[in-house]
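Sequence design from tokenized structure. All designs in this work follow the same two-part layout: the structure record, then the generated sequence. An example of the structure record is given first.
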């Protein structure tokens, strides 16, 4: 079979470092009967060692050439290939039962894909992803740090996360121009309180971070007033990165009671 030429439009950088591959698979800890979904299997660097430990594996792949390669190498009783865009894939359709999700996520769609995956947290045991290092830094950032933002809040609301592995560019072919890292995400509902309306929480957080250099008072003008902040004991002069996740949840719930329907 001819050599696959990486496609820039799919953000393809193929993992080739055997030590990194072994570390990722060891972190996933697949058991023989687990339901595991791999996003973007590429040339099978993680797919093969996963299948050594699993009875069956699901993969989501958009590249038709790679799909044909996978079909020629792995029988359907061992590997189910879901052809299409991971951004549109219904991960809850795989199962029943709990899911483990793993992948070397395309850097060009990593943030929207993480938000998409967050919606399936109730079915997931854990997720392990290779991502651009700066994205992982934002995911795990603490309040009052430069990397803390909308992505931090919305993922930390749902998941316990930690960076478990740093990965240099030369671990890939072709090597990307950025450093990478592997992050572990474990769903922990209620870890920062429970939002009465998650759509409202997302809207509140998006508005708060619309202009990072402005205060909560300015960014949330028309949504929250001085009385709202006072009722919650939140300083409206804070910048959005200074507010912890649980305070965004409290603020969202308070505004829901004040304004009524989601997004009102």
């Amino acid at each position: 079979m001819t050599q696959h030429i990486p496609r820039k439009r799919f953000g393809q950088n193929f993992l080739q470092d055997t030590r990194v591959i072994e570390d990722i698979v060891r972190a996933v800890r697949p058991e023989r009967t687990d339901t595991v979904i791999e996003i973007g299997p590429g040339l099978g660097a993680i797919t093969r060692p996963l299948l050594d430990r699993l009875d069956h594996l699901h993969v989501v792949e958009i590249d038709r050439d790679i799909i044909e390669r996978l079909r020629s190498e792995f029988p359907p009783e061992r590997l189910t290939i879901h052809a299409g865009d991971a951004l549109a894939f219904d991960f809850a359709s795989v199962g029943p039962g709990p899911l483990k999700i793993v992948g070397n996520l395309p850097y060009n769609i990593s943030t929207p894909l993480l938000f998409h995956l967050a919606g399936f947290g109730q079915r997931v045991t854990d997720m392990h992803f290779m991502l651009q290092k700066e994205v992982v830094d934002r995911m795990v950032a603490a309040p009052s740090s430069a990397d803390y933002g909308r992505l931090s809040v919305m993922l930390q609301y749902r998941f316990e996360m930690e960076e478990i592995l740093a990965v240099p560019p030369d671990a890939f072919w072709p090597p990307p121009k950025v450093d990478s890292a592997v992050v572990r995400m474990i769903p922990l509902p209620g870890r920062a309180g429970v939002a009465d309306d998650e759509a409202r929480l997302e809207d509140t957080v998006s508005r708060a971070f619309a202009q990072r250099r402005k205060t909560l008072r300015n960014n949330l003008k028309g949504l929250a007033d001085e009385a709202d902040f006072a009722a919650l004991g939140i300083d409206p002069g804070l910048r959005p990165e200074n507010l912890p996740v649980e305070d965004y949840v409290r603020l969202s719930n308070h505004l829901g009671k004040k304004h009524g329907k989601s997004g009102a």
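The longest strand covers residues 124-132. We note this feature because it recurs in several other targets discussed in the main text.
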